[in-house]
Amino acid sequence: MTALEWAQRTERALRQSEERFHALFDNAPVGISLYSDDGQVLLANQALAVMTGE
Question: One digit per residue, pLDDT tens: the chain, 54 residues?
Fold first, then answer.
């Protein structure tokens, strides 16, 4: 496998992993949020917005 092939395979795997994460995150029936080290909300799903009235 060439370096280019390895990079393409790695990028494809990362893209697929991100798609799975976002599908789970966006469609979860429970509230999920991600925070930065200093406590800032980085990402919150729709279920959490409904729960908190946002």
Answer: 899 999 999 999 999 999 999 999 999 999 999 999 999 999 999 999 999 998
Write down the pTM of the prediction.
Answer: 0.75
Contacts of 29 (CB under 8 A, 6+ apart): 47
Range of the domain at 18: 3-52
CA distance 7 to 9: 5
Total tally of structural domains belonging to the chain: 1
For residue 44, what are its two tokens? 């919150």
Task: Give dist(CA 48, CA 38) in Å, integer.
Answer: 20
Distance, in Å, from the CA atom of 14 to the CA atom of 21, rounded to the nearest integer, reads: 10
